[in-house]
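Intended use. Records like the one below are meant for learning the mapping from a protein sequence to its folded structure. Do not use them to infer anything beyond what is encoded.
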Amino acid sequence: MASTADFKNGMTIEFNGQLFTIIQFQHVKPGKGAAFVRTKLKNVKTGKVIENTFNSGVKVTTVRVERRPYQYLYKDDMGYNFMHTETFEQVTIDPELIENADLMKEGQIIEINFHAETETALTAELPPFVELEVTETIQGEKGNTASSTALKPATLETGAEIMVPMFINAGETLKIDTRERSYSERVKK
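Structure written out for the chain above:
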């Protein structure tokens, strides 16, 4: 248990029967009335951000969450299979727990958040940027390829589809922003 005085960014708490991470908090002491704490909380499972106000001194249940590095192995009927990089323990993760899972390449290292007491996986996070090869895209029209605002669809080596500038061709390796699901830059080989 912790009180509102113990709040810090990144702390995970149990609130309304669900797990939330504190994104932002502010202690407010108005001239009249009791002090309170204004917070922005992010739902660990859904990613939805809510705002909530706690009275000062209220007790909340804290949850210990551990981030562990895992290597992506393969996908099967059960979900995505990963191996811990140090203990070689294998774990299967449900596809709903991984945002932009189609941007994962076999052998890639990702971070999986575990509820420390129950040892259950909460979420899996890809690195902010990944490098993937373009396997298929339409040819840019002559004269249009210099523009960086004109976009066309491209299929990546993992099967994911994103929009890329007209000058990108099949066989090129790109740096992809996994948070925005967008083209960042070409990678020189």
